[in-house]
User: What shape does this take?
Amino acid sequence: MTEIQTPKKPFKPAGTPKFDMPKYDLPTLEVPEVVREFAEKGVQQAKEAYDRIKTAAEEATNMLEDTYATASKGAAEFNLKALDALRTNTNASFDYVQQLMGVKTLSEAVELSASHMRKQFDALTTQGRELSTLATKFQADTAEPIKAGVTKTFKTQ
Assistant: This one.
């Protein structure tokens, strides 16, 4: 027998539509001049707003950097002063103990102790005043860049 060959149809997946979508040409619309001007004005305002925000962000970053630098410097200065006071007080205590070991009578020990207490009280009072003054200066110097930045921000807006 002779076989009859029938042409095979190309395979189409089940999900493909069995018809072609109609093609529509979109009408060409001319944008009115008022709409075009409005859009250009909106773009210009957006650019200006971006520039203002960018400038404000840069100023805020600079302000924070200045504040951090000032705070670091002030903290280091305060810590050095506190360490110096600690060293002075420690040395005074060692000197006192050494002198106390050399006394011969109870009255000398009492007199030495009273003298040491007066000196230490005066030294601690002076050191406390110096540290307090330094802390106040440190606080003012650290707050100044922040205060200036906030003032500038509110004046420009």
About this structure: Residues 33-101 form the longest helix (69 residues). The two ends are 97 Å apart (CA to CA). The chain has a mean pLDDT of 84.
